[in-house]
Amino acid sequence: MKTIALDLMGGDKGPNEFLSAISIFLKENENIKVIAIGDKNEIEVSIKNDRFKFIHTDIQIDKNNSIRKELKKESSMKMAISLVKDKKADIVISSGDSGMYISLMTLILKRQEGVSRPAFAVMLPTFFENKKVLFMDVGANLEVRSNFLTEWASIGSNFYNKTFGTKKPKVAVLNIGTENSKGFDFHKEANDYLKNNFNDSFEYVGFIESREILKGEIDVVVTDGYAGNMVLKTVEGTSNILLQMIQNKLKNKFMWKVGGAITKGAYDSLSRDFDYRSVGAAWVIGVNGLGLKAHGNSDLKSYLSALRLANL
Fold first, then answer.
1. Cis omega before residue 137 (within 30°)?
2. How far is it, in rounded angstroms, from Cα 256 to Cα 205?
3. How high does pLDDT run on average in the chain?
């Protein structure tokens, strides 16, 4: 039976949205245990389930402190991650501060061999309905070196292989152009290395531009966390606005309304695919344990999506 450890503190909307999602999730899945850590004084939602355990702490992570200082405190985030280290949980989820979360994950669970920096990775929808693209880093490492990209190409392709069974995923490096001369030095160095050092676990296809990411032709796209976060939030915002614009346009003419009614199922399906709340969370890749980072402003739907993602 899989056990999920949850840090209830740190989300913008408080713990009760998370707890409501947990209640639904436990009813959906009879083979899951949940250990939630948070402040009992902030909790209004009651969960009566033998597979739910609550641990009280009123200590929350303080992003203004040094990571070494936070490591000495028994915060909800540290306690949740430690459950994975101690083999009392299989995966941890938090919506707390991203920098503190990945730093604690790194210090407590340790980096995988050959990994300089762990990264946040998300599964994005593509043109093909059942095809996803793994996109990393999306905010953990704002400044990178070329070896970060080459390492993420390797661990990202392994993750993709284990998740989807793709034997040799296609990997690309995000850049402002596909020419070898484009980009910063770390782009060029990573590109040269990946082209000249054969890796039988993935197929390196070179540089890719951001407009190509969602076409579904590439399995794994690696980039620095600054560009990755910008692209991710642009995709989230643009898709939502575009879907709203389509919905508004359909109201302008009678025949468009009729067509909209006929295609409502497809529209709703597309809307769910591109709703960032359906993605739920980003994977922490590169540490010796499984972790998911949920949005800081997660609501019930976001948390439920994160829980379902943890159960894949």
1. yes
2. 42
3. 90
